[in-house]
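Bug #77: duplicate submission created two jobs. Keeping one. Sequence:
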Amino acid sequence: MSLKSIDIEVFGRCIKVRCPDKSSSELYYVANILNKRLERLKEKTSVSNIEQLIFITALNLCYELELEKQKSAHCVQHMKARMLALNEMLDLALSRE
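Kept job's structure:
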């Protein structure tokens, strides 16, 4: 997998990053999402310090990611429980034959 260097602009700052050739469009896309989040946060909080906005956004993203991980783990547990119940029902039905 070859890497290439691309320039990404985040909140007015140019950042050179290396990424796989096939991932550059996705990186531009998420950089755009990040820029929009930073703009919304700036408008909402009236904070103008770029570093503070970036740190607050990073904390928000980490929090959201952690919530999604917890939801995912809950869904996995729920599906495992349902699969076990279904397996028991199948075993019971097959043993009656």
